[in-house]
Amino acid sequence: MKIRLTKEFEFEMSHALDEYQGLCRNLHGHSYKLFVTVIGDYIKNPQENSSGMMLDFKCLKKLVEENIILDFDHAVVLHKNSVFANVLKQTDTKMIMFDCQPTCENLIMEFHDRIVKALPEGVKLAKLKLYETKTSFAEWLIEDNE
Amino acid sequence: MKIRLTKEFEFEMSHALDEYQGLCRNLHGHSYKLFVTVIGDYIKNPQENSSGMMLDFKCLKKLVEENIILDFDHAVVLHKNSVFANVLKQTDTKMIMFDCQPTCENLIMEFHDRIVKALPEGVKLAKLKLYETKTSFAEWLIEDNE
Amino acid sequence: MKIRLTKEFEFEMSHALDEYQGLCRNLHGHSYKLFVTVIGDYIKNPQENSSGMMLDFKCLKKLVEENIILDFDHAVVLHKNSVFANVLKQTDTKMIMFDCQPTCENLIMEFHDRIVKALPEGVKLAKLKLYETKTSFAEWLIEDNE
Question: How many Cβ pairs within 8 Å bridge chains A and B?
C-alpha cells in the first residue's frame, strides 16, 4: 500500500521581482508556508519491534530544515542582476542569488531539486505546496510530471 | 514542468434546499471558502525580463472575482421554484435563480462552467474546492473528469 | 461528472510507540484531525424534488462518527504487547489494542478498512488525511492504490 507523509514548515523571506509592473518590484517579504509530501510503500507489520512507519516524520523534518529552511529563512532572494543585489551586498544581510526571478514557481523548482537529491532510497517526492501569502500558493505534483 | 497555482476566496451566501428533510430547507447562510486551482506548463527562464510566472496570481484573483465573487457574495441563491423565491422577489435583495438545488455540488458545477470560459489560453482549471462549513467541502478535480 | 466530498473530524487520543528510540516511546497524546473524502458520480438534476447531492454531508459525518470517532476519541491505543497495556488494564480507561504500532500509518490503514466496509453503494473512499500534530500528516489516496 502506498502512503504519503507531509511535514509543514514556515519561513520568513524577502524578495523583489525586478521586472514586475506593480508592487512586487519593490523589496518586500512574505511569511512562506511550505508543505513537503513524500510517497512510499508501506506494509503493516505486526512485529513488536517494527517501527510502523513508512518514514519517521522527524527524518523528513530534518531533511527539509537542513536543505531548505536553514538557507531560505530570513534571507533576501534576488535575481543575480537585480538592482537591489549590488546595494545589499554592501551590508551583511543573508542573500541568495537566483539566475531567474524569485517567484513562487521558481522557488518551488529550486526546492524540488534540493529535496529530490536528499531523500532516502525508497521514498519519492510526491508534492510541494508553497504559500506565498495566506490566499496564494503554487504546487508541484508528481502525478502532473511523470 | 507542470505547475499548479491556487487562489483562495471567501464569500457570504444564503440558500435554502426546499426539498430537504431537515434544517437545510430553511433559508440560511454560510461563509463559503472557494479554492480555485489552475494548471499550466512552466519553464524556468533565466532572462532578466522573464516574469518567472506561469500565471500572475493577480490575474487569477481578478478572473474569479469578476466571474464568481461579484455575483455570489451576499446573494440569496435558490431553486427557481423555491417557496422563498416569490416572497423575496418583493424585496430588493440580491438573488440568483438556479434550475437545480443550490447545494455545494451544484455551486461547484456552476463555478466550473464560469471559470473554464474565462481562463486564458494555455491555462486549465485543475481543481475547485468549496467549503460550505468549516468541516465540509466539495471538490471537482480534473484528474477525476478526463 | 465525478465529485468528491470531504468531512473533517477531530479526536483526542493517546498512544505509545514502544520500540521507538525517542520521546514517542512514552505514553502521550495528540489532537488528531481526520479528513475523510469520498468520490461518486454526480449528475445535475433540474427536478424540483432532486436533492442536488452526491451524498448528504450528514450521512458521511454519521458514518465516520459511528465507525471511528466513537471508538478512538479519548482512547489509549497500544500495541497488544506494549508495556503500558498490562498496567493500564488495571484501570477502567478506554483502550484499543493493535497488533502493530499505533502510528499515523497504521491508524490510517485501520480507518481505511472500517470506512470502506461502511460506505453506501456507488460511493468510494477517495482519500484519508490524518494529522497527528499541527504540522505532520499521513495520507492514503485512491489514485496511489488502484
Answer: 74
What's the Cα-to-Cα distance from C129 to each of A7, A13, A99, C9, rounded to whole Å?
A: 13, 29, 37, 10
Provide, as residue numbers in chain C, all residues whose Cβ is less than 8 Å from the Cβ of B139: 3-6, 37
Q: Answer yes or no: pTM beyond 0.95.
A: yes
C105 vs A5: CA distance, rounded Å:
9
Contacts of B9 in chain A (CB under 8 A): 135
Contact state of C57 with B102 under an 8 Å Cβ cutoff: no
Q: What is the distance between the terminal CA atoms of chain B, rounded to a whole angstrom?
A: 20
From chain A, pick out residues whose CB is under 8 angstroms from the CB of C77: none
CB contact (8 A) between residue B134 and residue C8: yes
Q: Cα separations (Å) of C76 from A67, B46, C8, C93, C98?
A: 36, 55, 21, 8, 11
Parallel, antiparallel, or unpaired for β A75-79 and A95-98? parallel
Q: In this complex, do B101 and C2 lie within 8 Å of one another by their Cβ atoms?
A: no
At which residue does the C-alpha cell 437545480 appear? B100
Looking at this predicted complex, what is its ipTM?
A: 0.96
Using the Cβ of A37 and the Cβ atoms of chain C, whether some distance falls under 8 Å is answered with yes
Question: At residue A35, what are phi and psi to the nearest 5 degrees?
Answer: -110, 120
Dist. CA C127–CA C112, nearest whole Å? 9
Find where cell 508553497 sits.
A130
**pLDDT tens for residues B9-46?**
999 999 999 888 899 999 999 999 999 999 999 998 88
- Mean pLDDT across the stretch A5-14? 98
Point out the residue among C19, C136, C140 whose CB comes nearest to the CB of A51: C19
Model pLDDT, residue A46: 84
A49 band by pLDDT with thresholds 50, 70 and 90:
confident
Candidates A22, A108, A135; nearest CB to B3: A108
Which residues face B138 on adjacent strands? B130, C5
